[in-house]
Amino acid sequence: MSRVWNFSAGPAALPLEVLQQAQADLLDWNGSGASVMELSHRGKPFMAMAAQAEADLRELLAIPAHYAVLFLQGGATQHFAQIPMNLAAPGDRADYVLTGHWSEKAVSEAGPYVQTRIVASSKEQGYRCLPLVDTAALDPDAAYLHYVANETIHGIEWRQPPPSGHLPLVADMSSNILSAPVDIERHGIVYAGAQKNIGPSGLVVMIIRRDLLAREGRPMANVLRYREQAAADSMLNTPNTWGWYLAGLTFKWILAQGGLAAIEAGNIRKSGLLYQAIDGSGGFYRNPVDPAARSRMNVPFTLHDPALDALFLEQSAAAGLMALKGHKAVGGMRASIYNAVPLAAVEALVAFMAEFARRYG
Ligand code: PMP
Q1: Which residue lies with its CA nearest to atom 15 of ligand 1?
Q2: What is residue 2's predicted lDDT score, i.e. its pLDDT?
Q3: Which residues carry a binding-site annotation for L-glutamate?
Q4: Domains and CATH numbers, the chain
Q5: How much distance in Å is there from the Cα of 46 to the middle of ligand 1?
Q6: pLDDT band with cut points at 50, 70 and 90 for residue 275
Q7: ipTM at complex level
Q8: Is residue 196 annotated as part of the catalytic site, yes or no?
Q9: Beta strands in 102-152 (DSSP E)
């Protein structure tokens, strides 16, 4: 078996133990004589597994009882649209914070369903810092305030949620959910595509305050209505059973690591090591983000001479360091160091970077 150190932004590295468990379970899950993928979602074994996964997530994030947990499909992008469909009546307005590519996308996908307004933005600063959110500037009648907790491309992360006054705060946590404890009660909705810190793509985990389920939103099919999915335990139609199962394994893995406080400590250590290597390279490598806003999950960096980019990528790949090419929107490199990327991977990357800078600096 040869596995690389995987710095993919998503779909991304999963914990080795989770993959090994899935491999062991693949043909005969739980003594059922069948794969979990081959079983009815209405059957007792699957329902029990699904309920346990929810219970484990509730424990990890200390989710209060007045929040529902949904296991949905469509990716975070679909929920950029589905959230205004559910929370905003025709003609309603909603406030958005802009911090990078994914918050822009959230605004554009919401556009057909709600009147969006930008209340704070760091666009003029090239998305290199977090904007100040002034609660006095919020629309008191907005249906909600939306922000992206971690900008996967720009490498910017909120350490604390922005203030939202009395508006329900909606957070896209696709790329940093379960990387540290979160105050769920500061939020109306927390949602995340699974393919970074949870499991495979094709699954969205949503934590939603139950009073928001009572909103009428706009006319839409039942399958799009969060209230209906909550009433049906996310099984209004066939859920992503494989994704749900893998998410459950990941939740157990995080619990076994010591929960989110332990996970956060590991993420501080890993990201600290990498930022130190960048900042200490004498300008050979650069990360442009305000240190207070630097992401612990996605670390974009450029080389002082872009002519070396191709060589860096070629040699890093040869050294078993995979998927370091940066997003075209910011260029250069990006190392995504989600929960499942071990310290040893970051150590290998930092050692490679130092050697590369020595050779070509
Ligand atoms: N939001 C964030 C923060 C993301 O990183 C991504 C995907 N990289 C998305 C939304 C879109 O997710 P999906 O492709 O699952 O729709």
Answers
A1: 75
A2: 84
A3: 42
A4: 16-256 (3.40.640.10), 258-360 (3.90.1150.10)
A5: 27
A6: very high
A7: 0.99
A8: yes
A9: 115-121, 145-148, 150-151
